[in-house]
Specification:
The chain has helices at residues 2-26, 68-80, 114-117, 123-140; strands spanning 40-48, 55-63, 97-103, 106-111, 146-151, 154-155. By secondary structure, the chain is of the alpha+beta class. The protein has one domain. The chain has a four-stranded mixed beta sheet.
């Protein structure tokens, strides 16, 4: 009788192990956690030249998203972050991006007050800063044809008192 019970228990255990192994091998794999693959795209960022008289391109990979606003934000944040390959930053390092939106093919970019408060330079420096921003945004976002610059949510007349930036700024005017 003991022998029969031992054999019966062994058969039950073997069947359970077989059932578990077969169930795991034949079942679809468990769902993995949703790990979004980081998509990137190559963009052209325009920084100042070493002599401060023109723009120089820097090609960089930045995160790519499905929404144009996310791509606009990533692009402007990369520009504000400064160059990595020898150009000269055009936007003061203290500046923070407050927000972005696109309205009727115009990118509206809202910066912190440091854009004006920490700006130091003459008309050429002001021109290069504006041109850097306009060229970078319009060259990389096909749905954008112009840029408007806001500071703390308000349209301003000028960054440094030399050049008017009221209204939309088109890339053909800022080469």
């Amino acid at each position: 009788m003991k022998r029969l019970i031992v054999i019966l228990v062994a058969v039950v255990v073997a069947a359970a192990v077989f059932w578990l192994v077969r169930g795991r091998l034949g079942a679809p794999p468990p769902p993995e956690e949703a790990l979004e693959t980081e998509r990137v795209r190559t963009v052209t960022l325009y920084y100042g030249s070493a002599d401060g008289s023109s723009l120089v391109p820097e090609y960089r990979k930045i995160p790519s998203r499905d929404k144009a606003l996310d791509n606009l934000r990533n692009l402007v944040e990369a520009l504000v972050g400064g160059p990595r390959e020898g150009g000269v930053g055009t936007i003061p390092a203290s500046v923070r991006l407050r927000g972005v939106f696109i309205h009727e093919k115009t990118a509206v970019i809202n910066f912190s007050s440091e854009l004006v408060d920490d700006f130091s330079g003459g008309s050429t420096t002001e021109y290069i800063l504006i041109s850097s921003l306009v060229q970078t945004v319009c060259a990389n976002l096909s749905q954008v044809e112009a840029v408007r610059i806001l500071v703390e949510g308000e349209e301003i007349e000028s960054l440094g008192g030399h050049i008017s930036i009221a209204g939309p700024l088109r890339p053909q005017e800022w080469r």
